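REQUEST ID: PR-0412
SUBMITTED BY: lab tech R.K.
PRIORITY: routine
TASK: structure prediction, single protein chain
INPUT:
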Amino acid sequence: MSDTPQDPRRRHSAPVVDGPGKAASRAMLRAVGFSDEDFVKPQVGVASTWSMVTPCNSHIGELAEQAREGADAAGGKGVVFNTITISDGIANGTEGMKYSLVSREVIADSIETVAGCEGFDGLVAIGGCDKNMPGCLMGLARLDRPSVFVYGGTILPGEGHTDIVSVFEAMGAHSRGDLDLIELKQIEETAIPGPGSCGGMYTANSMASAIEALGMSLPGSSAQNAVSREKRDDCHAAGAAVLELLERDIKPSDIMTRRAFENAITVVIALGGSTNAVLHLIAMARTIGVDLSLADFTAIGRRVPVLADLRPSGHYMMSELVAIGGIQPLMKTLLDAGMLHGDCLTVTGRTLAENLADIASYPDDQQIIAPLSAPQKAESHLRILYGNLAPEGAVAKITGKEGTRFTGTARVFGSEEEAQARINDGSVVAGDVVVIRYEGPRGGPGMREMLTPTSAIMGRGLGSDVALITDGRFSGGSHGFVVGHVTPEAFDGGPLALVEDGDTITIDAESDLIEVHLSDEELMRRRAAWRQPEPRYTRGVLAKYARLVSSASTGAVTDQAE
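STATUS: complete
OUTPUT:
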């Protein structure tokens, strides 16, 4: 082995397996299937998020094997390894949900750790739920080795055009008395028919679309059904694509540029995507060294309309968008209108414009994607709000279907559970602004999603009559008049900590304002009396996260904490 010629593509694996001094390394690898021929091939690590924890990831083991075979067929040596995943849909509304955003950091850490230790030359990462997708990208960005991300694919609709959000909203309808237990059980039993990520333009499909627009997935990867020949072929092609990237030495830092992130934001807005995309794209950008901020979402949002009629605020599901061509015809429309940067490099080795050159338009009779001349909303639904309640910014998803301005009376709660109980028992009424605080990255800790309370509000028929604001965040399935990511968070003494029951709060998504109607003097008086709560956790991963995590306005990352 000492005379093995150096292959420039084996920059990381050669020091691990070449030469007499690495006989022990080779011995270990022979036990997991390596042959003499394999030791001189570029090694491609395949990061699999397979798990029985959630349907989003239950099929990814098979997809990882397809990626490994693709790498092998192209002349590399594929090596599959696992990272974790959690299920927001299962954990929502419980203490366990505090681990959700934390898992993004653990996933990034684990991919960096395994690939850095084992000396993989390139990587494929396969994600199927909203935290493991940005977690995968952050791990790939830290390593900066030739890499391709693969989306695990979307789930099919349940019976009666239902999905997981249908179940959450049915729970709210049941608590109001509009749905009996048998009807609730029927929805529960049929809404999730098999593998795949949540079916609307929720966070998983939003992030998959953003990552394809960013250039880090093969064309079409974001809009394929989880259980399909197309998805298996996508994984096989991804394994092979890494070998071409190695040949040309194209790395994530060559692809994940400032202009590429602008493309990702543009596509998320046009699709009516999740508020979590704001958090994750900023985190991904910071990881690769790109300066991206809340202000960029405002600037791009002023010129990009919402075109998609997709859930949660719209009607259609991702599988229906898949059936008419996915997101590529939309991107071609945006490119032709000058809204995308066509010169950005992608994992195909070609530019975005080259990838889209031969893409056909949507069928004439489709109703899912509106034309630019008649958008669903003329400007972005993702609104970055400022004011005396959020001096460092807050993120709202305002489609306009519940209005663009709300003034109401504060109902203040110190946790999600407190708020949920009062929504369920009818204490929250029309005209209320539900304030859920101490749920931020540090205060929660973990910045829980508020899907359960927002779904309960919708299920009780209060979607247009009650607003909800929080230093936590929202599921991509949340809709209604909701504002999250309020910064500074309450635990750090942000103004949200000073709000009291009965205060008047205004949310204005036209002037991008969020304020409590109090004088500066009154806020100062309350601040002088405020004391920071004791941390909810002092040991374990949640305590460690709370000590390291940055503000939501900078992506809530743990490797570049403020």
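NOTES: The first strand starts at residue 43 and ends at 48.
REVIEWED BY: pending
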